[in-house]
Recover the amino acids of this structure.
């Protein structure tokens, strides 16, 4: 739960500073990729 909270805070800060939702999408994709690789292996 703590990593998701931290990720949400970081992505929120990125969104607030850039005012662009696309700016936080690469971070979200990397996190999803990490979780996927962890579940597969």
């Amino acid at each position: 739960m703590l990593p998701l909270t931290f990720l949400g805070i970081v992505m929120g800060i990125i969104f607030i500073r850039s005012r662009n939702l696309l700016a936080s999408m690469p971070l979200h994709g990397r996190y999803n990729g990490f979780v996927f690789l962890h579940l597969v292996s």
The first helix runs from residue 2 to 18.
